[in-house]
Amino acid sequence: MFCGKSSCKPSSSARMLAALLFILFHIQLAHGQQTCSEGFMFERRSRQCIDVDECRTMPDACRGDMRCVNQNGGYLCLPRGLYSRPFSPERPQVQQLPETAYGGTSEGQTNSFQPVPPERTAEPSYPQVSYPVPCILGYTLADDGTCTDVDECETNSHHCNPTQVCINTAGGYTCSCTEGFWLIGGQCQDIDECRYGYCEQLCANVPGSYSCSCSPGFTLNTDNRSCQDVNECEDSPCSHACYNNLGSFMCNCDPGFELARDGTSCNDVDECRFSDSLCQHQCVNAPGSFTCVCPPGYYVLDDDRSCEDINECDTGNNTCTTERVCFNFQGGYTCLAPLQCPPPYVEVGDNQCMCTNGNPACRDQPFTILYRHMDLLSGRSVPADIFQMQATTRYPGAFYIFQIKSGNEGQEFYMRQTSNMSATLVLSRPIKGPREVVLDLEMVTVNNVINFRGSSIIRLTVYVSEHPF
Question: Which of 122, 243, 269, 336 has the greatest CB tally within 10 Å of its CB?
Fold first, then answer.
């Protein structure tokens, strides 16, 4: 339908659509949904896209001896000494949006929202140079009439300082730092990677790089940063046992050996030096152990340390003939000769000699002599009861006196009477062997009723051993 300006009014649906579009437009502006091209930013106050001055907003936009020149929608990095006059970039002019951005003003027209993108209406402002430039800065005219990029890094026309590296870009170049350096105050300074834990263990910083190493007992992994424990026991440096631990190892020795000062080899322990009580008689050292030996006449017990007497008389390992009696003592034996009673005594059996009353030569002699033998350990502790003597017949009115008649020149023994009819021979002083002591122990019988006094002798032969066992 076509309507004139004065005779036709918009329908109610058209008016509602226009109002809705009007509200939607303001909501979009209020929420900042207006978009701008790169290098521009939307200003809500003026509702326009304005240029961003990168030279002010970006720190160190240009490095080295380069000057930042703002452009409409961008910026340039140019050498400072290239121009004959100061350069002041102008702010770009942006096309103003119409006051009414939705439809026309005629009542008969339907309002519609069409966002207007910003346009770069102002020409880019380039620096004014003192000579005609057919190509823009950073490019050169080729033989075919086209402009080609100038490689400032190759032509050495850059202004990077000696610590920096030149990187060519389209129409310019960038001053950067090589790996291992960072830019501080316009200078490339070495990065101390060791401060930041690049290495797991040991780190050595070098200009532009670093070197990792490991502590003893570790080896560097293929990543050249982490360390792996070395199992030294795989190729064991120990002479006996090896135990691996983190970063090291420990050597151990078999029983009877001790670790040497070098920490790897083992030395035999001479157990015999440490104690005299390891063996009862003699200790003989052996690699990693020791052996106890006993003197002749003894054997080693099952405890491998103590000595026990060999009874040569029982084993038959003796040289006694049939006429002689074998008598064993600690550590040896002796062959006793057959009993021979000295005159005026006669043999009456059981190693006993008697002197008869009818023989005048027996008047001042003991009535009987009884031969006995015993053994005694050398150095036996004292006092010690070693032999007992007792009267075999008791006569009415008689009493008995016991005493050592001979053989006690060293006063090692004495008699202690234990009853009216008995006494004990006591060792009062230690006696060392080997030694043979013959004691005559006398028992005196006194009977005052019949006025009788007589005596009997026990001739005791004591074999003192050479060793105290």
Answer: 269
pLDDT tens-digit map of 191-208: 999 998 999 999 999 998
DSSP 296: T
Q: Quote the number of domains for the chain.
A: 3
Q: Name residue, tokens 């058209």.
A: 14
Mean pLDDT of 147-164: 89
Calculate the alpha carbon distances from 55 to 58, 90, 91 in Å.
Answer: 6, 13, 12
Q: What is the CATH number of the domain that holds 260?
A: 2.10.25.10
Q: Quick check: helix, strand or coil at residue 181?
A: strand
| Partners of residue 244 on adjacent β-strands | 249
Q: Helix, strand, coil shares of the chain as percentages rounded to 5?
A: 10, 35, 50
Cα angle 344, 348, 349; round to 5: 135
Rounded to 5 degrees, what are φ and ψ at 191? -90, 125
Instruction: Give domain status of residue 469, yes or no.
Output: no
What burial class does residue 268 get, using C-beta atoms within 10 Å of its C-beta: 0-12 exposed, 13-18 middle, 19+ buried?
middle
- What is the total residue count of the chain? 469
Q: Please name which of 268, 270, 219, 260 lies closest in space to residue 251, comparing C-alpha atoms.
A: 260
Give tens-digit pLDDT for 92-125: 343 333 333 333 333 434 333 333 334 433 444 4
Rounded-to-integer distance, Cα 209 and Cα 216, Å: 23
Helix (H, G, I), strand (E, B) or coil at 362: helix
Q: Does residue 333 have a pLDDT over 70?
A: yes
- In sequence order, what are the beta bridge partners of 425? 387, 415
Enclosing H/E stretch for 413: strand 413-417
Residue with tokens 């002798």: 457
Q: Out of 67-76, 412-421, 423-432, 447-456, which region has the weakest mean confidence (pLDDT)?
A: 67-76
How many Å apart are CA 398 and CA 457, to the nearest integer? 18
Which amino acid makes up residue 45? R
d(CA 116, CA 96): 10
Q: Dump pLDDT digits (tens) for 207-223.
A: 989 999 999 999 999 99
Q: Is the pTM of this model over 0.85?
A: no
First to last CA, the chain: 147
The answer to whether the bond into 344 is cis (omega within 30° of 0) is yes
Where does a domain end: 285, 309, 333? 309
278 & 354 share domain: no
Place of tokens 């002749």: 296
Give the position of tokens 């009987």. 368
